Amino acid sequence: MNIGLTGGIATGKSTVTALLAERGAFVIDADVIAREVVLPGSPVLEKVAERFGPGILQPDGSLHRKKLGEIIFADSQARKDLDGLLHPPIRALMRSRMEERERTHPEQLVVVDVPLLYESGLQGMFEEVLVVYVPRHIQKDRLMKRDKLSSEQAENRLNSQMDIEEKRLKADIWIDNSGNLEQTAEQVSRFWSEKGLV
């Protein structure tokens, strides 16, 4: 069985992912894969450098994320071009790792952590989607504390993602992470036993 796990910024996806891993789930992290596909010498990084110029490479051949970020956040077409170069290889690698694990360990739950799962239209890749949820006011408060942001900065970041309530309504399963760790762990245990996982 596989599930896509998502949520919103500062909802506590990593907490729930860790709780699932503790119980024996195999976790695939889309952010880790996104970094892997642009390692020095990779064909994907070569294509990115062709499109955005050699200035986006560090002297050692690795991606200069800050320089690339400056380009794509100032130009929506550049961001679309980058997505077009990165998304297909990221999805292909996620899918192949997921399928390989399901083939070699069919009894194990495979959890794929994808921050922008709905925004990227990836829900069809998974048997079910689990959303890590907290109400927006808690999300905003945690984000301000965690990243030392003003109220306005936090709102801007929250507004750049799909609303957490919308994600919760789309989800097959959702875990409310607005309480303490024990309460979240209880919900994860309930999900685990309902799915008949061992």
TrEMBL record:
It comes from the Bacteria. Catalyzes the phosphorylation of the 3'-hydroxyl group of dephosphocoenzyme A to form coenzyme A. It is found in: Cytoplasm. ATP binds at A10, T11, G12, K13, S14, T15. This is Dephospho-CoA kinase. Its EC number is 2.7.1.24. It catalyses: 3'-dephospho-CoA + ATP = ADP + CoA + H(+). SUPFAM superfamilies: P-loop containing nucleoside triphosphate hydrolases (SSF52540). NCBIfam families: dephospho-CoA kinase. Pathway: Cofactor biosynthesis; coenzyme A biosynthesis; CoA from (R)-pantothenate: step 5/5. It is an enzyme of class 2 (transferase). GO terms for molecular function: dephospho-CoA kinase activity. Pfam families: CoaE (PF01121). InterPro entries: Depp_CoAkinase (IPR001977), P-loop_NTPase (IPR027417). The gene is coaE. Gene3D superfamilies: P-loop containing nucleotide triphosphate hydrolases. Belongs to the CoaE family. It comes from Paenibacillus gansuensis. Keywords: ATP-binding, Coenzyme A biosynthesis, Cytoplasm, Kinase, Nucleotide-binding, Transferase.
